[in-house]
Amino acid sequence: MLFSRDDKELKDTYRTPIFGTEEEDVEMPRYSIGKKPIQPRVAYRLVKDELMDEGNARLNLATFCQTYMEDEATKLMAETLEKNAIDKSEYPQTTELENRCVNIIADLWHAPKDMKFIGTSTVGSSEACMLAGMAMKFRWRNRAKKLGMDVTNKKPNLVISSGFQVCWEKFCVYWDIEMRLVPLDEEHMSLNIDKVMDYVDDYTIGIVGILGITYTGKYDDIKKLNDVVEEYNKTAKLSVPIHVDGASGGLFAPFIEPDLEWDFRLKNVVSISTSGHKYGLVYPGIGWVMWKDEQFLPKELIFEVSYLGGKMPTMAINFSRSASQVIGQYYNFLRYGFEGYRQIHQRTKDVAMYLAKEIKDMGLFEIYNDGSNLPIVCYKLKEDANVEWTLDDLADRLLMKGWQVPAYPLPENLQNVRIQRIVCRADLGHAMAEQLVNDIKSGIKALNNAHVLEKNEQNKGAHGFTH
Ligand SMILES: Cc1ncc(COP(=O)(O)O)c(C=O)c1O
Fold first, then answer.
1. Which residue has the least CA distance to atom 14 on ligand 1?
2. Which residue has the higher pLDDT, 188 or 467?
3. Which of 121, 127, 214 for a ligand 1 pocket mutation test, highest count of atoms within 8 Å of Cβ?
4. Name one GO molecular function term (predicted).
5. Of residues 74, 106, 466, the one with CA closest to residue 263
6. How many CB atoms are located within 10 Å of the residue 209 CB?
7. C-alpha atoms less than 13 angstroms from C-alpha of 142 in its C-beta half-sphere
8. pTM of this prediction?
9. Positive or negative CA dihedral for 183, 187, 191, 196?
10. Rounded to an integer, what distance in angstroms lies between the CA atom of residue 285 and that of residue 290?
11. Closest ligand 1 atom to the C-alpha of 246?
């Protein structure tokens, strides 16, 4: 029995409609836990309703993270939430699925057959980048020590373009590394290959190339980077490795541009990271990091876990987490196969290029990325657009229709350029994209007819307007 009839305090029974229960009046606990339990169906409704005004994730074009998975995948993931990814001995078959994913990804990234690749799942690209960064730091230190270099008083450094994602700044702060930024500029919207080696010296633990700059979606030219690094390494005291941050491109490029050389085919690329929850098409909470060969992952970073009488190496910053995302990733690999991923990504790219063309044809915007690498469209207002509104105003108009399309400044050196970015994901179909174009057009029309109230010059954020 859920509640007895003679319960003096709780008159509701399981038959009472949710919005007729007294429990529905419960004060939502904010600072301390409530005194009594309430019915699960009422708790469910209350929490669900609290989240109702958060917007529709599918219309959020600000994020790379997946907002759609097939019902079967969602069911499978919901049914495996209790599995702990770190507990290799209790869940050996889950571990087997993780290992298969590592093998599949290593194969997509052309891990050389004559080397012993090693990799692991992570919570996302941030954890994957931390692990790759630590491996570069430890490996550099081990080698520098052998050469008698001062590894205690002098700080090592990491070289990356100023279009880096914040996880690299975190890595450098947490692990006490100097972050050397190669600036982006109007002529170099990705890593400047002519300049990058100026930032490298004997204390460089590695260079990070980005396959899909977060701000614009552009790819660093990893092949050219490999060439200049190769030249440098010929005479270097300590050879410099390349890590590729393929958060978005790592599981996009292999399917769409298989001939693009950015991965382990390149000699100096020793590690790669990606987010399974971006173009790996899994809900948030999964990333992958891979080393081309065991020699690039110092032994002291690997911890041995007993596993069915054998030993299972693990490397993670986290310990316990659900394995359901790993299982979701394996489901996708099994379900889609290479051709399925290719079809999904190709259509997403077509949608991005359609959007870029439509937006260009509006005549007001300069396109920075037209979706021809990653399916990301970003643009700024033309200098001579001659309009009284800003991209922030347009973002506000789109928000009224439920679309989240943020406007923000480009990184250091280009911070005066304010752009708007549309991240196309698998679940943004062509019909939805047409609707977005119509909403942009009607937003512009409304803004052109509005009397825009300019705030002071310092505040370039959202502007108010009156009709
Ligand atoms: C280039 C790059 N690196 C790392 C990350 C961090 O990814 P995650 O959210 O999976 O931790 C992102 C996220 O957008 C990114 O674009």
1. 214
2. 188
3. 214
4. glutamate decarboxylase activity
5. 106
6. 31
7. 13
8. 0.92
9. negative
10. 17
11. 1
